[in-house]
Amino acid sequence: MRILGITIPEDKRLEIGLTTLYGVGRSRAQKILEEAKIDFGQKPKGLKVEQENEIRRIIEQYKIEGDLKRETGSNIKRLKDIKSYRGSRHTKRLPARGQRTKTNARTLKGVKKTMGTGRKKEAKK
Prior knowledge:
This protein is mostly helical. It folds into 2 domains: 2-59, Helicase, Ruva Protein, domain 3 (Orthogonal Bundle), CATH 1.10.8.50; 66-98, no CATH class. 42% of the residues lie in helices and 3% in strands. It contains 6 helices and 2 strands, in the order E-E-H-H-H-H-H-H. The protein has a two-stranded antiparallel sheet with strand order 1-2. A hairpin with a 2-residue loop joins strand 1 (2-3) and strand 2. Helix 2 (26-36) packs across helix 3 and helix 4 packs across helix 5 (85-91). The chain starts with a strand and ends in a 16-residue tail after the last helix.
């Protein structure tokens, strides 16, 4: 089963498989399946063509994948352009929502780079 060019895994439950789409999490996947009147535990390979088309129709109502990524990117670009505090945090690749950065913040900052004193250790005699 393919939706918007993304292949939904055949061996996973639909509730989990739909989350491969960017912008669809567990709760939105459950809403989509409820609206389509399909069991959460059903596998994509067991769906009828009408059921697949119903899921596609419901998903097209939401902003997902490319449209959502584009909107998110333009929002961040706007923050950078107006030189807001949050925009400057995005530019520096630091957390933008008030988290501490002395420790943690590894997701944005990347791998820890320890700074030394600049001297090499003396060999023991």
